[in-house]
Specification:
The chain is mostly helical. The chain has helices spanning 3-9, 13-28, 34-55, 64-84, 87-90, 92-122, 126-134, 139-146, 151-162, 167-176, 181-199, 209-232, 238-250, 254-267, 272-282, 290-303, 312-328, 332-339, 342-354, 367-380, 384-394, 400-406, 412-419, 424-429. Helices cover 74% and strands 0% of the residues. It folds into 3 domains: 3-119, no CATH class; 149-282, Serine Threonine Protein Phosphatase 5, Tetratricopeptide repeat; 305-433. It is globular. It starts with a helix and ends with a helix.
Length: 433
């Protein structure tokens, strides 16, 4: 039984603790001895508080909605316990103490939630995790960017900070140093992420007009920031790679997206970001054509050097094609046939063998992105051997949310079980370390 199923069916340790508390509450109603009643009520209350301690902390395996429910459900049930036990009228001191404990547990849970998000954004990189945990201004990020000349490393930093780094620090940075290209790049990366969050991940027909306005306004701010970065540092391919996504989400012509791509690869022909973003830019769900997207990806595979990360973009293109058939068009049979097409499977395998599967492969800062895209594909086609290899290498660097971004439904925990991979976190949870 998966973690999601256990949570929603109420068979986790925290759930059994809350059950025990309410069972003791019911028993107390049938006992006349005051000392026994008080003892049962206090034990029941302890079980309820234990359920909060066990259950409120976020679980990285679960989706955000389930974690939000966990965060709220246990303290609400504990307060219901107090109401049923009639403690509101019986003992205000006890109620105050319980409320204080619940507040402390809530703060602990929120702190755990924030740190879980930081770990997601760091992708297992200790330096980035420390930067996200200790950010008090923009100085640490400024020093980190200044110390990196490698384009892939600079893109990795931008991705890592884009979800959580306080936007007020980045605004302060561009205000204090308006001629610092790194400041505008980091600000643009964060604004692009906030554009998507403003839009939400729903289908376009479900988005309110207010959200749509915020989405496009934020995209224009992103475009302005990235164009300023380009003006200040004409050699950097990373802002051009980000501009591909701005153009794609803004609905710009395909020719404009291609123009941004050409500017990026002119500066770095091996830019993972540019090639990945171009797959999305050419996809049918974003106004392109899936056949054109796959043809582009095949060309990338053909010209990529042995051991490069770039051939993995073909697997990304196949995932996008399959998702479009399955989720957008709801052509489930056609999507099934696509996944089981031997030519497609063989092409994907050949691309993998030229890339991550090659003895000549060398890890870069962005290889983690190539690996989790590849592992998603090999889970979709149930290639157990390669899936096991890639998930073992990835270890705890990715969580279910990363797979959710790549393909609908996530499924990382199930895939690990299928491949027989147990991460360090899982081993610790089971007491094996």
């Amino acid at each position: 039984m998966g973690e999601h199923t256990k949570e929603w069916f109420g068979v986790k340790p925290a759930d059994f603790a809350i059950y025990a508390g309410f069972i003791l509450l019911v028993l107390a109603q049938y006992i006349d001895a005051p000392i026994v009643v008080v003892t049962l009520l206090l034990l029941g209350l302890l079980f309820c508080l234990l359920s909060c301690w066990l259950g409120m902390s976020p679980n990285p395996v679960l989706d955000d909605f389930t974690n939000y429910i966990k965060l709220a459900a246990y303290p609400v049930l504990t307060l219901l316990y107090l109401i049923f036990a009639d403690l509101f009228g019986w003992n205000l001191i006890a109620l105050s103490m319980v409320m204080a404990l619940l507040a402390g547990l809530l703060l602990r849970a929120v702190s755990g939630w924030r740190d879980m998000l930081r770990q997601q954004c760091a992708y297992g990189d200790a330096k980035m995790l420390a930067l996200l945990r200790n950010a008090k201004d923009y100085q640490g990020l400024k020093a980190t960017m200044a110390s990196e000349e490698d384009n892939e490393a600079r893109y990795f930093i931008c991705v890592s900070i884009s979800r959580l780094f306080p936007i007020r620090y980045l605004k302060a940075w561009v205000a204090a140093e308006p001629c610092n290209a790194d400041a505008w790049l980091c600000y643009g990366a964060c604004m692009l992420q906030r554009s998507w969050e403003a839009r939400d991940s729903s289908q376009s027909v479900e988005i309110s007009s207010a959200r749509t306005r915020r989405f496009y306004n934020s995209l224009e701010q992103t475009r302005t920031a990235l164009n300023r970065c380009v003006e200040l540092n004409s050699k950097d391919p990373v802002p051009w790679a980000y501009l591909i996504m701005v153009a794609t989400w803004s609905g710009d012509e395909i020719a404009d997206r291609v123009a941004y791509f050409e500017q990026a690869v002119e500066r770095d022909n091996n830019s993972w970001a540019a090639h990945l973003h171009m797959i999305i830019a050419l996809s049918e769900k974003c106004g392109g054509d899936n056949e054109t997207m796959v043809n582009f990806a095949n060309q990338v595979v053909a010209r990529a050097a042995e051991g490069s990360d770039l051939p993995i973009v073909l697997l990304k293109a196949y995932i996008e094609y399959w998702k479009y058939l399955d989720a957008f068009l709801e052509e489930h049979q056609q999507a099934h046939e696509f996944l089981h097409d031997e030519n497609i499977r063989n092409s994907a395998l050949a691309a993998y063998q030229k890339s991550l599967g090659s003895a000549a492969h060398v890890n870069t800062a962005t290889t983690v992105f190539a690996r989790y895209n590849a592992s998603s594909w090999f889970w979709a086609v149930r290639n157990k051997d390669i899936l096991k290899k890639e998930l073992t290498i990835l270890g705890d660097r990715i969580e279910d949310v990363h797979w959710t971004w790549v393909m609908s439904g996530g499924g990382l925990e199930e895939a690990r079980k299928f491949a027989g991979v147990r991460t360090e976190k899982a081993r610790r949870a089971l007491g094996h370390l």
